[in-house]
Amino acid sequence: MLPSVLPTETDHVPVLADEVVANLDPRPGETIVDGTFGAGGHATLLASRLRGDGKLIAIDRDPTVAPFFERFRRETGVKARLHHGEFSTVLQQLASNGVRVDIVLLDLGVSSMQLDRPDRGFSYAVDAPLDMRMDPGAPYSARELVNEADERELADIFRRYGEERFARQIARAIVKRRSREPFERTGDLVEVIKQAIPAPARFGEGHPAKRVFQALRIDVNDELGALERALPAALELLRPGGRLGVISFHSLEDRIVKQFLRREEQGCTCPPDFPVCVCGSEPSMRATPRRAIRPSAAEIARNPRAQSARLRVGTKV
Ligand SMILES: C[S@@+](CC[C@H](N)C(=O)[O-])C[C@H]1O[C@@H](n2cnc3c(N)ncnc32)[C@H](O)[C@@H]1O
Fold it and tell me: Fewest CB atoms within 10 A around its CB: which of 66, 239, 254, 316?
């Protein structure tokens, strides 16, 4: 049974809000997919531009967004439906059912509600069950990962997804501790991480467990895999002239989006030393604008969580 979550005024502040609306530019009559509905902050802003004429398809893998969706529907009055599921799967299903839309938005990562709710286990700042699943019904949580992955696999996850300098030392300390007693709580994991990091490195560079927690969360939720699968599905779903917007929060995600847009802009997949194109692939997207959009200093001052956000937008040609 999931705890009930009721919307409040301070749920989640949508990042790059003006930039999302300006660059995705919704118009009356259009259909919008918000693949990461959360508290519906972006969805509400985008839907207000539909002026009551258009549709919004919301997706989230976290079923606790349902009350936020009900509030969204009540307050905006637009035609809307909510799909509970992983966005790449839902986008693929919509596309193969022949649905076509004008805008797809993905605002990646976890929401403030997920981070701030101790029982979800995303935060290193409070002791909680070791979980980190965005979908509490998913079979694989941080508890299984931390207690079952071998030392090398753990070190690789910490290095790859967290850019953790002490990945090997932390993985070794985890395996040693769990041979005595399995990990159940985030607090135990934080303690082991702190002890595994050399004392001078424990201070500075933020909380010592920050990078490991990010890495575990990315792996548990297959965040990069979901993004890789979602981008081509979103492209298929868009009508010509349709806009795709992706907000990412770290370089691993941003790189995937940037490379996807570059590939789709280029079209041709022939090796660079071919004198003429033999593949015949045409460009299918244009990055609009060319560079990632970053939050203003004023937004970062208001909402420090926006600091690392990057918005990339592509238009289907
Ligand atoms: C950063 S929040 C979005 C906040 C939202 N834009 C707003 O303004 O309220 C990300 C949301 O997307 C969901 N999410 C992240 N990855 C997902 C995926 N692969 N499939 C479905 N939902 C996902 C999370 O559960 C979370 O609710």
Answer: 239
- Give φ, ψ of 84 to 5 degrees: -90, 120
Residues with CB under 6 A from ligand 1: 12, 14, 36, 38-42, 59-62, 65, 86-87, 107, 109-111, 134, 226
- Please give the pLDDT value at position 280: 87
> Residue 202: its pLDDT value, please?
72
Our separate counts of H helices and E strands in the chain read 13, 7
The predicted structure's pLDDT at residue 204: 67
Sequential DSSP letters for 62-73? -GGGHHHHHHHH
In which region does residue 77 sit, left (phi positive, over 0), alpha (psi from -120 to 50) or beta (all else)?
left
65 CA from centroid of ligand 1 (Å):
9
Spatial separation of the C-alpha atoms in residues 121 and 117, rounded to whole Å: 8
Q: Are 76 and 47 in contact (CB under 8 A)?
A: yes
166-197 residue pLDDT tens: 999 999 999 999 999 999 999 999 999 999 99
Q: Which residue has better confidence, 205 or 37? A: 37
Is 205:220 a contact under the CB 8 Å cutoff?
Answer: no
